[in-house]
Amino acid sequence: MSLASERRAHLAAQPELLRAIRRGIEKEGLRVDVSGNLAMTPHPAALGSALTNARITTDYSESLLELITRPLPDAGSLIGELTDIHSFVALRNPGEPIWNQSMPAHLPPEADIPVAWYGTSNTGMLKHVYRLGLAWRYGKVMQCIAGVHYNFSLPEAVWDRLADGDTPQDRRNTGYMALIRNFTRHAWLLMYLFGASPAVSRSFLQHAGFEASLTRLSPDTYCLPWATSLRMSDLGYKSPIQSDLQLCYNDLDTFTTRIHRAVTTPWPAYEAIGTHRDGRRIQLNTSILQIENEYYSSIRPKQTTGRCERPNTVLRQRGIQYIEVRCMDIDPWAPAGIAIETSRFLDAFLLYCAVEESPLFPPPGFCQESQDNFSLVAREGRRPGLQLRREGRAIDLRDWAEEALDRIEPYARLLDEHAGDGGHADALDRQRAKAHDPDDTPSARLLAALRDGGHEFHDWTLAQSQAHWDFLRARGLPADTLAAYDAAARSSIADQAAIEAADTISFEDYVARFHDALGPA
């Protein structure tokens, strides 16, 4: 019996471990007006404080909502809660649908894109200034690209069997880093199966300067013909400076050391910008990264942070709590931006990544081959006969996809045994159909809808978004659920006011304290 088979047998004998798996979602989406233009209004007061509402906040822009679920025990309750949050937003802010696509709506001139505002507290200002820094470094347009972040955690007792280490925290860290390595090797598969952003409006390209590198599909629509995800390609949110970091996924200590170096090493272009303009702070520092979260990757090790805590520091002190998958496009056919079957497949895929053997990457602990496969599939994943590289050898994408799905199947069935249904196996079978027929992938279906219907990308996406919005409003919420969301929104406004009233130091002193919290390398 292989090591992976032994581990699966252990999980099968202890169903309470599978029941203790948790998954959560952070789903981004632009508020737009009825014409599909970026909403220029402030964050709606009925949704509460973007600083302190645990379920509804903003990401980069004031117009970019981020809807956050709790960690939940199954895909059904997860997508149900995410849909409830969407329905609450639709009921309380009905005139501004959420743009249900990763690539943005029609945008105003870059200077007019509103940066998210979190109030006057030091905590709120830190979040705001960080985003100002992103604008100076990368431009505002790229910050309007949206996605679905999928959080996943396994119970502590699982790592006693799956990983080595002297302490529970050591075993947990070792296990999650092994999961991340396996994920990195196979993340191209998620791009192929779920990438849903092969096209974009011309207005985005004019802002971003990429118009010449894409194919014109119609007057206002451009695409890459074989692309799965422009969002995750080099046309999306990428930083050439960050591409040289090559963070190590072999162990947490090396990973956090390299992140520490990135947030403390000045970069000439950012030094030229400076930290202040006209007496106002415009970025947190001039380092390669202002803060750890500026590092853009398809997956991150995570630990919950408190006020003025640094992600890197708490990872070192408390270890990895969960992983965050960041490469999922918004599903334009799902009212909440992600379907239940997608969540079920992700659970089986991530359990596979956690349980299967995961060799270390060669020095320096970063696998360029895996990154190249990921980028290639994002740009050309449906190209007939496309080949990837596996351990230095060429392999047909379709062959590798079918092999990977075969290896994931036991994990889908394991989850089904304890869920009492066949939902995970059904979700896996749905992905097999895509592996056999690229025309069945979301990216191909979207391009076919545009071509066959003679639609512009913007118009088609607006119609989809409005239809979902109408559904969410008509769906409504039970009275007690609606009342609970309203109460949370009101409470969050009071919480923000309390934080603002409690500040006793200047913002500059708070920034200094925040930097000091990083500690030594």
UniProtKB/TrEMBL annotation:
Q: Which domain of life is it from?
A: Bacteria
- Per the UniProt entry, the signal peptide is none
Q: Sorted alphabetically, which InterPro entries does this protein's record hold?
A: Gln_synth/guanido_kin_cat_dom, Glu_cys_ligase, Glut_cys_ligase
Q: In which pathway does it act?
A: Sulfur metabolism; glutathione biosynthesis; glutathione from L-cysteine and L-glutamate: step 1/2
**What top-level class of enzyme does the UniProt entry assign?**
ligase
Please indicate if the UniProt record lists Kinase as a keyword.
no
Q: Which residues form the Glutamate--cysteine ligase domain?
A: 14-362
Q: What is its EC number?
A: 6.3.2.2
- Quick one: where's region Disordered? 422-442
Q: Which UniProt keywords apply?
A: ATP-binding, Glutathione biosynthesis, Ligase, Nucleotide-binding
* Family to which this protein belongs: Belongs to the glutamate--cysteine ligase type 1 family. Type 1 subfamily.
| PANTHER family the record matches | GLUTAMATE--CYSTEINE LIGASE
**Stated name of the protein:** Glutamate--cysteine ligase
